[in-house]
TrEMBL record, chains A, B, C:
Keywords: ATP-binding, Kinase, Magnesium, Metal-binding, Nucleotide-binding, Thiamine biosynthesis, Transferase. The keyword GTP-binding does not apply. Pfam families: HK (PF02110). Substrate binds at residues 43, 196. ATP binds at residues 119, 169. Its EC number is 2.7.1.50. It comes from Enterococcus diestrammenae. This is Hydroxyethylthiazole kinase. It is an enzyme of class 2 (transferase). InterPro entries: Hyethyz_kinase, Ribokinase-like.
């Protein structure tokens, strides 16, 4: 059994509680995918309870998709508490570069919280890594549709700078802890035609990292899990449309087995 | 026609408006299930309008899943207004015991508002009934997987203390008004693998109680409705996965008939 | 190719970014339908970034479904910025007439923002046009189930008063810019048994108006697109239930072609 199969088994055995500070657009999808993979979701963002809920959790996911003054404070508090407890925090920097508020919030989060994993599209991760990036909203910018080599370089740079695992989602997904780089060639273009696949991957990252200490393998496993599920969803629904695809994606995550991960994963590990 | 079949007919005839003060995780599911069973959902939580909207409604559902300072005030205001108007208020004490904020909020709600129905899992209801409970988030704690007799006793105790109908969901659901106890052995384990089935039951309780004064029968009917729909959803989708199950659950609620309720209900009434 | 087919082609070519200030009940449906038709959704409502996000967008949708003090300010700010930039703003006056807060908010929005399109059910649009209306929540009032002629008159009146395109959804949908009136006899009754079809149409209006300057044709195209998709969804799912219908509706929008719009559209243009 490879490390990614083991990661899925760990998750299903341990049923980690994953605390989400997330956006109200895709929060239901995040809850359902967390349950589908074998975790338990909880969402609580009031300042008075955010630390208490974090104490119950095995991982925290911070997603700035619909941030506001109230929730940013809660994100900082949850992140700091998680750091104290030694549980992993996942950052989803939705729309990094799109507004001063997002950029300042990300600067503050990165200054006050250590993230175990940072996941975004290339636009977002480039912004965090200090590259200039022209952001067009929350989806990837056409100018960022560059080569996999670019993604690798950016992922490694940010990973080293932040001592985090960095996941860049794109045609080929890139996962790096600064030393190792994994290239994952699963997934299907229809995944970008429904809302929340990025957010859902962040929930899977929380679920996998909440059940084992090797965050690099956990992150590769989570990325494989979603990509493979996207492929299965497309095979099941073909051209029925994005509503059916969305249902089938959740189906596939809930039915995913270690064997399927091994058989369908198109993974390449590149040592740095 | 039994009282539960009549309850469904009442609901479909009267199309009650059910005002929800609820969480942002499952609010869409709550709206859709209210429509599916034959009610009309409305969600409004600004302090300036919450009383006005309550005046239009036939029932109010208060769910503390993602409570915050602003929404707690709105919950109290809606509950008090509903009490003045004599319309039923349903309480869903999500995560009771999980944080001081939740516990204080529940104490305040119970002190200031009379609830017609209180629905939770055994962890939550035990907490409200004054038992010590180790809460692990918003799902039921393993330590609470006790016998149906325990659930009965806790339900009756809280029902008498609060002059409310108490619904405890679990493998066997228990409904009690303190005198009568109904045991409902419908449902399917997959219901706990999607988010919001508890919240959805609270919406059904609002819908049924919003269309008749006998809240005990209304609560039994609502609990039967969801449990039977869960079984039908499983039969339709088998092992397709949780995405399909979720769709089929809403399908089944929307297609539920009094005849199906009579044929499939596994209900036992125990006089106290 | 007729103007509505061209409108769909424009949309798919231009992939407009549609900024939503909307409610937390149906926001996920709004995001998914925007993607399904070919746009890109973004939701951001913090006062500090709402103008910056509007600058990136090609259209703004303002939906007051779950308004509160914080979000109303953001709606005004986004609307004003959009007016400065010359990008269209869509108003969805959910529950107009149902509370003083909603009515005051609508008065303020109409005073401070120019709307390219205003979409509601007959209760809501009558309220905005200054007619007395007995509102029963967010769904259409039985007293408003009047004739298409009434809807036409109300739509034209509000369109002229506000220099906007007005869309009234009902058994027959009415679209008017004050001079022209389009009657659209597509759609299916099941659309009113799921939450958010009105909100979803507002998202489609934003998507179509965000990709061409002729807002009347864009609005007719959006209304045709949803109505035709509702019919296709019903044909595909028949009496499976509202869960399947909802999935099939999103499917149909995502698979809609100009040819289908031409073949299935039941459109009548009445010159004023």
């Amino acid at each position: 059994m490879n490390p990614y199969q083991r990661a899925l088994n760990n998750l299903r055995t341990q049923n980690p509680l994953v605390h989400h500070l997330t956006n109200y657009v895709t929060v239901n999808d995040c809850a359902n995918i967390t349950l589908a993979i074998g975790g338990s979701p909880i969402m609580a963002d009031d300042l008075e309870e955010v630390a208490a809920i974090t104490e119950l959790a095995q991982a925290v996911v911070i997603n700035i998709g619909t941030l506001n003054a109230r929730t940013v404070e809660a994100m900082v508090l949850a992140g700091k508490k998680a750091n104290q407890l030694g549980i992993p925090v996942i950052l989803d920097p939705v729309g990094a570069g799109a507004s001063a508020l997002r950029n300042q919030t990300l600067a503050r989060l990165l200054a006050e919280v250590h993230f175990a994993v940072i996941r975004g599209n290339l636009s977002e991760i480039r912004f965090l890594a200090g590259f200039a990036s022209v952001n067009q909203g929350v989806d990837v910018s056409p100018a960022d549709l560059l080569t996999v080599q670019d993604s690798q370089a950016v992922a490694q740079q940010l990973a080293l700078a932040r001592q985090a695992v960095v996941v860049i989602t794109g045609k080929v997904d890139v996962v790096s802890d600064g030393l190792q780089v994994a290239l994952i060639d699963n997934g299907h273009p229809t995944m970008s035609r429904i809302t929340g696949t990025g957010c859902m991957l962040s929930s899977l990252l929380g679920s996998f990292c909440g059940s084992q200490k090797d965050y690099f393998s956990a992150s590769v496993a989570a990325t494989l899990a979603l990509g493979i599920s996207g492929e299965i969803a497309h095979e099941k629904t073909q051209h029925q449309g994005t509503g059916s695809f969305r249902v089938a994606l959740l189906d596939a995550v809930s039915q995913l087995t270690p064997t399927t991960m091994e058989q369908r994963g198109r993974l390449q590990i590149v040592k740095a």
